[in-house]
Amino acid sequence: MKERLVSGIQATGKLTLGNYIGAIKNSLELQEKYQMMIFIADLHTITLPISKEELAKNREEVFALYLASGIDPEKSIIFYQSDVQEHTTMNWYVLVNTTMGELSRMTQFKDKSNKVKLENGTYSIPTGLLIYPTLMAADILLYNPKVVTVGIDQTQHVELTRNIALRLNKKYKMNFNNVETHIPKIGAKIMGLVDPTKKMSKSNSNLNDSIFLLDDPNVAYKKILKAVTDSENKVYISESKPGILNLLTIYSCLTDTTLEETEILFKDKNYKEFKEAVALKVKEFLTDLQSKYQEARKKVNYWAKIGQNKAQKIAQNTIIEIKKGMGL
Ligand code: TRP
């Protein structure tokens, strides 16, 4: 029996090349080794204002892009979080076992909670932001995995999940694992093209900063040509050349070569030649992915139903156990 792994992705914006290299590509390898539960965290997405149309579009896009990228729904269980009601039930059981102090201390809560404009134009802190981590803990504990994959900004939430697991084990005689965090190594952080000192983001307002997986491949090509570099015109690996390092990383991840091999490949090239080569790789990659995406879209509903059923079977058992433990 393979060990279980849980991974969730938000549906807040359009997926970028950074998401592909940092998360999806990594999952392709992991699905060989683990029994992977991978879901679109659409209940997390509604913790901040988002229109119905945008949410509906994003979540389906993300699902289809995962399929198109090679997440195999026969091997992995892929589903929408909101399709498995046990997530919200479990969230309550987790929530009543946390404190205000624990939740309000979370870095992400502190970062996000000071600038939320609600639909009615007022500024307030939505409660959902505070309890975001309990839902995340619920997502994880429901499937009691060995490993969880998250971006570096989410490790504190997994830390909290571990504490909650210990608490539930003690209080209700549960058997939750001490879950390990897996953070993708290489390419974990693809930086912005306009500002290579900041992570490429799906919600940046400067569209030239990010390559979106559904960008027109020719537009993506041009974005790479325009990427901010430096004035040295020499390609080599250096932390003080964030723009060049980023392009080297992109190239090496898309061609499955090491960063050092990529450096050698371009050591005698000027920036123009280097960028053209990176841009071409990106364009080819997107063209191929998007043709698969068109096919994948037709199958989303089918696989979502299957994923829902499989996930629910596991989740229901956890709910039965914890209710028993609680005396419900
Ligand atoms: N909060 C995660 C993020 O923003 C997404 C997520 C929700 C998740 N639930 C999860 C990740 C459970 C791993 C496990 O990236």
From TrEMBL:
Its EC number is 6.1.1.2. Keywords: Aminoacyl-tRNA synthetase, ATP-binding, Ligase, Nucleotide-binding, Protein biosynthesis. This is Tryptophan--tRNA ligase. The keyword Amino-acid biosynthesis does not apply. CDD domains: TrpRS_core. Belongs to the class-I aminoacyl-tRNA synthetase family. InterPro entries: aa-tRNA-synth_Ic, Rossmann-like_a/b/a_fold, Trp-tRNA-ligase, Trp-tRNA_synthetase. It comes from the Bacteria. One of its GO terms (molecular function) is tryptophan-tRNA ligase activity. It is an enzyme of class 6 (ligase). It comes from Mesomycoplasma lagogenitalium.
